[in-house]
Design brief:
The chain is built from nine helices and 13 strands. By secondary structure, the chain is of the alpha/beta class. Helix 4 links the parallel strand 5 and strand 6. The chain is globular, with a radius of gyration of 19 Å. The model has no long low-confidence stretch (mean pLDDT 97). Bound molecules: nicotinamide-adenine-dinucleotide and uridine-5'-diphosphate. The site of uridine-5'-diphosphate (UDP) has 15 residues, from helix 5 and strand 8.
Length: 312
């Protein structure tokens, strides 16, 4: 199999690349490095089955014949997609269309990385794939949420009208090694703050919830979905739900830090709760997450210490 991975220098893209290489695929990774880090691919420097191209997927390109396209390119952390607002809308529209054209041209399978953000601030809990969501179309987060919702519509249209073998994964909050230490997501922020002995910045009252999935579990789910015959969206995430206060405590426990909490304003439209119903993934893919938060945090800590030199 020759596989194209967009967003390959990012957190999830680099792990997916490793997994595909371990399965004897040949991988072309592309990334414009707007939020990615070549350090995530440095260990592949002498891997003959891997090639990297720095490029923006918003400009049409032809990678040559490929059997599968994994489209992961997009800023993903709230501070980054707010900084890159127009770029996020473009990669979720023009960029997705360009990669769908590649899949169509080479009769390749296609998987798009969608998100639990499609549910917005959900009124249904936990969230099933049949829930249509509660999204502010003009709020700050709309650059990400609406790009992802448009992308899902585009993917389904290529499937329905052009017969492309597409897959849509709705990814819930995922963490692990290679999460960028300064990209502003909650797990990376709290770990870095704890390792530096700084206060953990809790936004709002910390009673909002998220459900955190360890990266290895997520990649397993994505790979299974890519090989399935399911074309409708599938939630992949860990249904164990934590408040942000509980998450802060878990990170204090994992690091042994005595950092205090500092409460800061809640960002606009920050979802109050989020938890995947993974019945569809369990039934269709025989998939469920295995790694609990405490174990995932332990594994992540090693990375944050070695990448940044913090807390060592
Ligand atoms: P990330 O920021 O680490 O990786 C995204 C990568 O895409 C980066 O390397 C970035 O440089 C690249 N990129 C962005 N725009 C590009 C463009 N125009 N052309 C080429 N490359 C471009 O984020 P991540 O957490 O690895 O997210 C990967 C995908 O998964 C994203 O599509 C994101 O929306 C989705 N997702 C992630 C999570 C999560 O919890 N990690 C949750 C839901 C959805
Ligand atoms: N959050 C927080 N402190 C931080 C970063 C994030 O309290 O330093 C909160 C944020 O307000 C949200 C949750 O943690 O409620 C998850 O935020 P993240 O940016 O990781 O992802 P989101 O799920 O909001 O896309």
């Amino acid at each position: 199999m020759r596989v194209l991975v967009t967003g390959a220098a990012g957190f999830l893209g680099s792990h997916l690349t490793d997994r595909l290489l371990a399965e004897d695929c040949t991988v072309l990774g592309v990334d414009n490095l707007c939020t990615g880090d070549l350090e995530n691919l440095a260990h592949l420097a002498s891997e003959p089955r891997f090639r990297f191209e720095e490029r923006d997927i918003c400009t049409p390109f032809d990678p040559g014949p490929v059997d599968y396209v994994f489209n992961l390119a997009s800023p993903a952390s709230p501070p980054e997609y707010l900084r890159l607002a127009i770029e996020t809308l473009r990669v979720g529209s023009v960029g997705v269309e360009n990669t769908l054209e590649i899949a169509q041209k080479y009769n390749a399978g296609f998987l798009h990385a969608s998100t639990s953000e499609c549910y917005g601030d959900p009124l249904e809990h936990p969230q099933t794939e049949t829930y249509w969501g509660n999204v502010n179309p003009v709020g700050l987060r709309s650059v990400y949420d609406e790009a992802k919702r448009y992308a899902e519509a585009l993917v389904m249209a290529y499937h329905r009208t052009r017969g492309v073998n597409t897959h849509l994964v709705r990814i819930f909050n995922t963490y692990g090694p290679r999460l960028h230490p300064s990209d502003g997501r909650v797990i990376s922020n709290f770990i870095m703050q704890a390792l530096h002995g700084e206060p953990l910045t809790v936004y709002g009252d910390g009673n909002q919830t998220r459900s955190f999935c360890y990266v290895d579990d997520l990649i397993e789910g994505i790979v299974r979905l890519s090989r399935s015959s399911e074309h409708m969206p599938v939630n992949i995430g860990n249904p164990n739900e934590f408040t942000i206060l509980e998450c802060a405590q878990a990170i204090l426990d994992a690091t042994g830090s005595s950092s205090e909490l500092r409460f800061e304003p809640l960002p606009q439209d920050d979802p109050t709760r989020r938890c995947p119903d993974i019945t569809r993934a369990r039934t269709l893919l025989g998939w469920e997450p295995r790694i609990p938060l405490s174990e995932g945090l332990r594994r992540s800590l090693e990375f944050f210490k070695s990448r940044t030199g913090a807390g060592v």
